[in-house]
Amino acid sequence: MVxxxxxxxxxxxxxxxxAQVIALRSEIPLVLGEEPGARGRARLQAGDxxxxxxxxxxxxxxxxxxxxxxxxxxxxxxxxxWEGWMRGCRYCGPYARMVRRSAIxxxxxxxxxxxxxxxxxxxxxxxxxxGVRNWDYRYCWLRDASLTLRAFDDLGFTVExxxxxxxxxxATRLTWPELQVLYDVYGEARIPESTxxxxxxxxxxxxxxxxxxxxxQLQLDAYGEVIDAAWRYCERGGRLDRTTARTLVGLGDTVxxxxxxxxxxxxxxxRGRQHHTHSKALxxxxxxxxxxxxxxxxxxxxxARFARARDAIRExxxxxxxxxxxxxxxxxxxxxxxxxxxxxxxLMGYADPQxxxxxxxxxxxxxxxxANAGVPNAHACALGWSGxxxxxxxxxxxxxxxxxxxGICGFWGVEARALEGDVAAARSDFERLLSFGxxxxxxxxxxxxxxxxxxxxxxxxxxxxxxxxxxxxxxRLQGERPAHTPVSAVDRRGHV
Length: 496
Known about the structure:
The protein is of the alpha+beta class. It has two domains: 5-78, no CATH class; 88-477, Glycosyltransferase, CATH 1.50.10.10. The protein is 39% helix and 10% strand. It has 14 helices and 19 strands. The strands form eight sheets. The protein has a four-stranded antiparallel sheet with strand order 1-2-3-6, with no helix packed on it. The chain has a three-stranded antiparallel sheet with strand order 17-18-19. The longest helix has 19 residues, at 68-86.
């Protein structure tokens, strides 16, 4: 049976299905017709306003929001709350409007009761119109932890940063000392993937998926992200309780035991496991941070044990994750393919961004993964460079079709170029990337280089995190102190 709207008169139009209820109320008279849905029309003059409300309830009594003046009062209260929250933003560097818009976007994607930040509020918006790359992103990815915490902290939103870290450490206790790739906002670790075959999908892009099969993958980089997030918290003056300290030591033990293994990697391809350079580098980051946490007595453990494994990981990366012929780090041990996650080797402190190896890596990534066509900006077209980067191009990810340029990768490119020393060029790249935001400053997961259209799930937290972090780095390197100088035992040039 297809659920239909029923006119409940003063209670509005109601659609009921099992224990779920959607209620629609409107100051514009609505009429039910033969076709599904309701329609109404009103002529408005300058200054006129009409209010509509839609509520969804499950397993609870239906909540009906008031209309008229009360709705206006609630809207004013909401606006005042957001203005008050934004006064807590201490960022005063360049591109402040876009940075603040991104901060609001991250806050909107935060589940208030737990502090969890979801990747996107949408599911199955396609990465290629008509294609099958349609995923459910309404969950929390551990790989986002460190970069998201950094974004919140650098803007002065320490409460949000600490809440997200607390959620990460709490949710992962369900699977400790192993980490899953993602969890839902409640910390649920079981998120099976299925398809909704009765839906035609956005622009007829099928299948429509809910849940995410990445839950069954191994991503070793997640260990480094979580431990690095805890280390950043301590560098800001935070303190770890004994349970959290033991949790981090357990994660470090897992890294020591498993870093030799192949994994699916940060981009979650469905082709099987390989030895990804980025994953190994983030294992190095995790153990390096644990050594520092031990040295500063935040964690009680044998630092030398973590240091020995850390050094062994570096030896493996430098021997098998770098191609002398290309003059670049490579995405998979022993191969000559590239992916944009290699830029994180300098951004996460594994490598000096001004070293010959990282300079060569940035150059090769820009050459192979740069998306320069169809830039919706005359200035950018004249320069022949859009600033957009694909995640990868020369690897089979086990799926048919293709995808667009990946939003956060472009912002990683900005940071890497700025840290390399070419701040002026990095700033130009950043400004061109900003041209791909929509009319209210929101960015999708990906951008179609042909026409600049937003593709993939929208808005994407990861893209906005990248925007914030790139802006803060540019501000600092240009001598325009942002909110405050980020505290770090890694001086952002890879020196530890």
